[in-house]
Structures are given as C-alpha cells and as structure tokens.
Amino acid sequence: MAKTKTKPVEVKQPKWEVKDKLYELNLRETPVVYKIKTRGILWFDEEKGYEREIKYCANQKTIFVDEMKGDQRLDHVSFRDGKLFVPKEKQTLQIFLAHHPDNGSKFIEYNPVAIAEDDLDVLELEIEALNTARTLDVDHAEAILRSEIGNEVSRMTSKELKRDLLLFARNNPNLFLELANDENINVRNMGIKAVENNIIKLSSDQRTFTWGSTDRKLITVPFDENPYSALAAWFKTDEGIEVYQTVEKKLK
C-alpha cells in the first residue's frame, strides 16, 4: 500500500504593513529628547545563520551594512517627549526600528488593538474581583482587609468593611482574588483575633505562641516564617485543631 505524503504545514509570518507608525518610549522616566543607537549593532539573521551589522543611513535603501552601496550617511533617531512618528514613506527607518535590540524593551510600537485587549483584560478582572467581593461574608471580608490594613479592621462597621473591600477589589483585583482564594486566610485571621483578645499570646520576639490563660506553650515559630502563617498551618494539625475549635467558640 502506497504511503500518503503529508504536506508540510506552512507557518505564516506576520504580514508587514506599509503604514504610518508611532513608537513610544517604555522607560520609567520620559526625557524631552532620547536618542537610540543607530550604528555598531549586530542582528542575528536566522536564514543566513550568522550575525549581520545593521545601521540607519538616510541615503540607503537597506539597514544591512553588507548590502549598502556607496556613501553611508548615518542619521540620528530621536524620540521627543517619549514619541517618534515614522511615516509610511520611511520604510527603511521602520525596518531598522523593527530590528533594533531596544525594540520591545526601551521602546514599543503603539498598537491600539493590543492596548484595547489589555484594557479589556483589566476590566474583566476588575468585574470578577468586584463580583467576588459582593458575595463574601463579613468574616471573610474582615480576613482579607486585615492582611492589608491590620488591626484597624476590628474597629470598622460592616458597611465600612464592605465599602473598603469593594475599593480594594477594584484598585488591586489581582491581589484581592489571590487573597479571596487563599484557603488559609480565614484561619490566619482567627489567629490574629485570638491574639488581639488575649486568648493566645505571642511573645515579644514573635517566636512563640502560648495559651493565654495558662501560658502553656503551643508552638515555636520556624525561623524566617511569618508567625501568623505558622499558626494557621499549626491549627490544621491534629493538636492544633482542638485549640482552633476552642478559640472559635471563645470569639463567638
């Protein structure tokens, strides 16, 4: 039986568009004028298998030095107030910028579609966080906010808790969802409340938890570990679960 020949899959490269392009600096600070390097740059050519020198010369039709003919009039490339507009007629400059090693790091091509997609992702994340915040009970809301604002949460009313929780969800949806899905956060919160109410004591060096009424040692906090994280983990052990249940009853 004759073998059927499989047609190789063609990988389509992104189509180069001849159009006006806007480039923006991607730096922490935006200087009034910022010049990028335009000579002495090596670019690895995968097709040829070796590095080729590129530079931008206004009088050349190519960016590759080994293809240039005649005089090479080097030109400067400057961003002003963080932006560089390159009309479609300057294809050599656009190609140079596409090959530049700083492309994607120190500067990027303005892409309204990509920006819209990023904005949509952020908005959808905010909606998810806000919807989650609306469904949480008061105890869970308190546990999340305590991780952000500390003991101040104990003095807040339920409406203040709900308000601050929604604000937290809107302003930092990633962190909020991470905390909302943390199975230990309620247990950790119980430990903090137990210490606040002197049901459990934490030593001044934050290394030892003891029972409040008898000073009986409960656990020693492992080195370099958050004491309340260690306590939450201990609460889940066979010994700790009994203490947790007692603390829960005392706090009701």
State Rg: 30 Å
Q: How would you spell out the order of helices and strands?
A: EEEEEEHEHHHHHEEEHH
Taking all residues together, what is the mean pLDDT? 86
The share of residues in helices is 40-55%
What's the arrangement of strands in the largest beta sheet?
6-1-7
Distance between the termini: 79 Å
Number of domains: 3
How can the largest sheet be summarized?
Answer: 3 strands, antiparallel
Structural class: alpha+beta
Number of separate helices: 8
Shape: elongated
Return residue spans where pLDDT drops below 50 for at least 5 consecutive residues.
Answer: 1-13
**What is the percentage of strand-forming residues?**
15-25%
What this model shows, in words?
The structure is a single chain. This protein has 252 residues and is of the alpha+beta class. The strands form four sheets. Strands 6-1-7 form a three-stranded antiparallel beta sheet. Strands 8-9-10 form a three-stranded antiparallel beta sheet. The protein has a two-stranded antiparallel sheet with strand order 2-5. It has eight helices and ten strands. A hairpin with a 5-residue loop joins β8 and β9. The chain folds into three domains: 21-110, no CATH class; 111-182, no CATH class; 186-252, Rec A Protein, domain 2 (2-Layer Sandwich). The model is unreliable at 1-13 (pLDDT under 50).
